[in-house]
Q: What sequence folds into this?
């Protein structure tokens, strides 16, 4: 008879000071936060730092969750915004942008089968500007529809479709270069 | 999907980083730590809220007294910490440096206030101060930067002085409301008993209306759902005899916003007193005539309101008028209501001006009330009319409340009428009226004055039952979870119910009072909290079939010992109220939406409006139609 308590209810209880509910929320969504951050940033350390910062900021942010959107949509927005801030900060401190440019970070991952595939991915992601990378992380990484991604990014569905066609162009461009080599 | 995108997707997913458990644990720990910090100290003890201590604590520390001679309108200064300074900047957005010409906002440290006050006083003698508690503020700036949420802005309401002819920005920031969280969901197995005091105040509704008509949704702390519900009179069964002060009607109905929960509707109707039967009354109007009262919606409206009321008094009622601030003192000695010309003349001679502290205005009012009560049967009541400046001669708000509670024991009651926007002090007004066995009402229009001072005059003046407390014990075998809608500022401790020394709300003649619980039956898909794996099955056992047990305590006016009424609540309880209960539910839902309730399951103001429309009933005075209009307006503001 009992269903899993919904995110929205956990949020309501957490906003009322229920620590258990808040812990459940974090446990339930840590992986999502980390994974999305990783896909946008392309770097484990940054993604872990980002996820930790988001967890620590959530108690205050919960008050701004009004329940108009689904909790996961709201959370995705937070991750995207936090990742943008992180990238901006890094650029401001003139540190060389890490992330998808550093292939060795990914190489540690045993799931990656060949260096070639990884280099291709890394190349593709670095070729894309930030906005396309975010779009790809949501549509391909999180398997969202264009409509869902549009909601997270506060854009129209058409913009997402247009961006995905841009991504295709970039990938085709990469393929052409590969042929020429 | 194209080949390119498929390839990218596959590559992304195979490059996917696995969650590092240690990192996850660190992040969750960091989150929990932040969570604890965020909620530290917010768990106030449940007790009848006589005060909202935060601001008063500061005020009584004398910060204000220090600045009293400098009253003002233009500069908002914040004291305390660096965090506070950041906050003041956030609050005002573009302002971060003082501008004496335009009255812009800035922040300074506490040490500078005195010097700055003197400097400003030398220029034009006006300084207003915003005082914050530093501990709270430390957490606030980040949140308000993210989005100026109602929660953050409610913390900005602690302005310590009346802002006189303030520009709109400051007017908003000086309105004070009790800072109370919504009643949380309770698990019956852990917390089967709910106790609260009834509330017949209506101030919150009028305030909400004035906000919406002004084009803004009210700050969520300004919304007290129970006051919105109780603003309306309901057609509940009337007590047949005078020795039964009120009737209690219980109905279980479907929840409009959740198909899997129910509403427990408790309706109380006080005995109605025919106007010609009522005993005479002594009224002392204690009127704020400080400079801020000169706005059209304040003193002029007040005078017109009293004129309306005067027309409805009986010839042997007596009226006196005392003013405070500005021109202080007794303006009208006790006068028979039949001598209308004399009363009207002194009302019309009232004018607002000056900002001198009124000397002992309140004491004077009470002294007059006691003098009038001497030797006759009439009940005496002081009616305080103000826009929030409580400079009534007792400067410490604690002492003020004690004084009023003390006088209540001697039989002189206090009602509070709030006027105008700008520095409306809702929290204090409510607390004062509560301590004075009276009601707090907010008067924004002459129509509202008609409702409060004429149509419901009997209820405002004649208490038929005192210290009315409600305790509901839910049966864990039937009800898994429950929550009380509204009444947050009226919560009582469980043991207070049987303690006749603990004060609670009063019911006036003809008043209706409504309380609504949202309850989740055992086994409903709406149950939010999972069953314990290792919990026991021994719940309830007895009385299976009953949802809950209602206990109600009240005292007859002037008596010391309370009476107890008990009644079991069955799943099919139906008092035959029909649309009346539905209408109350519509108001409740509207109030909760305005409060930002997250358990409304997508139910919107338009749904509340449809329900209100369908259950509007006869609506003799048009109050309900007005609500429907407000709902429609609120939809467009949402």
A:
């Amino acid at each position: 008879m009992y269903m899993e308590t919904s995110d929205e209810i956990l949020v309501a209880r957490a906003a009322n000071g229920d620590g258990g509910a808040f812990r459940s929320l974090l446990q339930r969504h840590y992986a999502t936060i980390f994974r999305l951050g990783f896909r946008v940033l392309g770097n484990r350390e940054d993604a872990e730092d980002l996820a930790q910062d988001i967890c620590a900021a959530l108690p205050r942010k919960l008050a701004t969750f009004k329940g108009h959107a689904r909790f996961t949509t709201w959370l995705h927005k937070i991750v995207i915004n936090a990742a943008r801030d992180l990238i901006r900060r890094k650029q401001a401190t003139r540190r060389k942008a890490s992330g998808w440019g550093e292939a060795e970070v990914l190489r540690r991952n045993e799931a990656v089968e060949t260096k070639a595939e990884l280099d291709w991915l890394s190349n593709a992601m670095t070729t894309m500007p930030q906005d396309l990378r975010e779009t790809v992380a949501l549509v391909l990484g999180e398997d969202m529809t264009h409509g869902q991604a549009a909601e997270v990014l506060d854009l129209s569905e058409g913009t997402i479709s247009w961006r995905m066609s841009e991504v295709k162009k970039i990938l085709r461009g990469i393929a052409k270069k590969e042929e020429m080599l | 999907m194209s080949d390119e995108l498929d390839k990218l997707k596959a590559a992304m997913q195979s490059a996917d980083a696995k969650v590092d458990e240690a990192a996850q644990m660190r992040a969750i720990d960091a989150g929990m730590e932040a969570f604890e910090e965020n909620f530290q100290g917010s768990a106030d003890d449940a007790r009848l809220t006589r005060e909202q201590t935060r601001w008063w604590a500061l005020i009584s520390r004398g910060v204000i007294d220090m600045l009293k001679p400098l009253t003002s309108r233009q500069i908002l200064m914040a004291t305390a910490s660096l965090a506070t300074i950041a906050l003041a900047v956030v609050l005002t957005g573009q302002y971060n440096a003082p501008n004496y010409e335009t009255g812009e906002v800035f922040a300074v440290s506490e040490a500078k206030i005195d010097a700055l006050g003197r400097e400003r006083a030398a220029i034009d003698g006006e300084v207003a101060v915003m005082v914050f508690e530093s501990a709270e503020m430390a957490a606030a700036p980040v949140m308000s930067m993210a989005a100026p949420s109602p929660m953050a802005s409610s913390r900005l309401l602690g302005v310590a002085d009346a802002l006189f002819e303030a520009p709109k920005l400051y007017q908003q920031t000086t309105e004070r409301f009790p800072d109370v969280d919504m009643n949380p969901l309770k698990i019956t197995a852990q917390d089967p008993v709910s106790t609260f005091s009834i509330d017949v105040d209506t101030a919150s509704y009028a305030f909400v209306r004035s906000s919406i008509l002004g084009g803004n949704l009210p700050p969520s702390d300004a919304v007290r759902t129970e006051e919105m519900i109780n603003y309306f009179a309901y057609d509940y069964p009337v007590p047949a005899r005078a020795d039964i002060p009120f009737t209690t009607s219980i109905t279980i109905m479907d929840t409009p916003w959740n198909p899997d929960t129910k509403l427990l509707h408790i309706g109380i109707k006080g005995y109605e007193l025919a106007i010609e039967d009522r005993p005479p009354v002594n009224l002392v109007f204690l009127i704020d005539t400080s400079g801020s009262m000169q706005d059209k919606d304040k003193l002029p409206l007040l005078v017109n309101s009293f004129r309306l009321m005067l027309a409805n008094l009986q010839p042997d009622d007596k009226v006196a008028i005392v003013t405070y601030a500005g021109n202080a003192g007794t303006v009208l000695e006790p006068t028979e209501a039949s001598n209308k010309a004399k009363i009207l003349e002194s009302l019309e001679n009232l004018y607002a001006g000056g900002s001198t502290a009124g000397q002992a205005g309140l004491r004077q009012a009470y002294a007059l009330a006691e003098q009038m009560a001497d030797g006759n049967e009439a009940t005496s009541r002081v009616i305080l009319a103000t826009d929030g400046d409580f400079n009534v001669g007792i400067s410490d708000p604690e002492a003020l409340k004690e004084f009023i509670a003390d006088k209540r024991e001697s039989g002189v009651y206090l009602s509070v009428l709030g006027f105008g926007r700008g520095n409306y002090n809702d929290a204090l007004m409510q607390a004062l009226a509560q301590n004075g066995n009276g009601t707090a009402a907010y008067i924004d229009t002459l129509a509202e004055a008609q409702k409060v001072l004429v149509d419901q005059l009997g209820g405002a003046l004649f208490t038929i039952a005192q210290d009315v407390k409600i305790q509901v014990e839910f049966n864990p075998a039937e009800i898994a979870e429950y929550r009380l809608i509204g009444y947050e500022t009226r919560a009582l401790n469980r043991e207070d119910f049987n303690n006749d020394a603990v004060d609670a709300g009063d019911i006036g003649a003809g008043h209706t009072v409504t309380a609504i619980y949202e309850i989740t039956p055992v086994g409903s898909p709406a149950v939010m909290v999972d069953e314990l794996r290792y919990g026991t099955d021994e719940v309830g056992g007895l009385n299976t079939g009953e949802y809950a047990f209602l206990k109600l305590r009240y005292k007859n006016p002037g008596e010391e010992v309370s009476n107890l009424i008990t009644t079991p609540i069955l799943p099919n309880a139906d008092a035959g109220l029909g649309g009346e209960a539905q209408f109350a539910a519509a108001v409740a839902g509207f109030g909760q939406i305005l409060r930002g309730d997250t358990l409304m399951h997508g139910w919107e103001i338009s749904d509340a409006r449809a329900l209100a429309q369908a259950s509007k009933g006869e609506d003799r005075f048009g109050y309900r139609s007005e609500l429907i209009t407000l709902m429609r307006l609120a939809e467009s503001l949402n």
Summary: Chain A touches chain B through 63 residues (CB under 8 Å). Chain A has two domains: 1-99, 103-181.
